[in-house]
UniProtKB/TrEMBL annotation:
It comes from Panagrellus redivivus (Microworm). This is guanylate cyclase. One of its GO terms (molecular function) is adenylate cyclase activity. The keyword Cytoplasm does not apply. It is an enzyme of class 4 (lyase). It is a single-pass type I membrane protein.
Length: 212
């Protein structure tokens, strides 16, 4: 749960100072109706389910320049552009990772519930953040700032099987990097943020949005 560079410093007894990052992209996902799904599983089956799912996700992360920050229950938090800066590529890295996650859940099966399908909500936001190590016992590499909160809101206000992104992430994907298609969701009331115009990032098999 620590970046290699951070872990190396800690092993040498060196202090790890908090660091500011001007632009990163942050991704959240969670399992749709997880509480209902978990109610049909024993505790051991819940652990097995999440381990199998996260193992599939970890394989996708390994194919992209993304950093897995942590998992909290059925929630999954990743970032790009932190702890290693990568210019303007952070939004693209998480967009491609999100597509990989959606492909992975299409073939994912629950052993004891073969007729059930797992679905996820995904959210991405781009902005500044601060990263640092918190704690001495089992230290954690944590991200702080409004960008983290907004990325979480993108996920919680999203829809199953869709990648919900903010205007800043849309700017990077369509104007800075280019080549990505989005569908405007219009104005959405985001808790703690007020009214925001947000977008759905379209996968290759989703049609172009209809003209307004």
């Amino acid at each position: 749960m620590l970046p290699r560079t951070v872990a190396d410093k800690l092993k040498l007894g060196q202090a790890v100072e908090p660091e500011s990052f001007e632009q990163v992209s942050i991704f959240f996902s969670d399992v749709v109706s997880f509480t209902t799904l978990a109610s049909r599983c024993t505790p051991l089956q819940v652990v097995t389910l999440l381990n199998d799912l996260y193992t599939a996700f970890d394989t996708v992360i390994d194919e992209h320049n993304c950093y897995k920050v942590e998992t909290i229950g059925d929630g999954y938090l990743c970032a790009s552009g932190v702890p290693i800066r990568n210019g303007n590529q952070h939004a693209r890295d998480l967009a491609e990772m999100s597509f990989g996650f959606l492909r992975a859940i299409k073939v994912f099966r629950i052993p004891h519930l073969p007729n059930e399908r797992v679905n996820i909500r995904c959210g991405i936001h781009t902005g500044p953040c601060v990263a640092g190590v918190v704690g001495l016992t089992m230290p954690r590499y944590c991200l702080f700032g409004d960008t983290v909160n907004t990325a979480s809101r993108m996920e919680s206000n999203g829809k199953p099987g869709r990648v919900h992104i903010s205007g800043s992430t849309k700017h990077y994907l369509t104007e800075v990097i280019g080549g990505y298609r989005v569908e405007s969701r219009g104005e959405v009331i985001i808790k703690g943020k007020g009214v925001m115009e947000t977008y759905f990032l379209l996968t290759d098999d989703e049609p172009d949005p209809k003209p307004a």
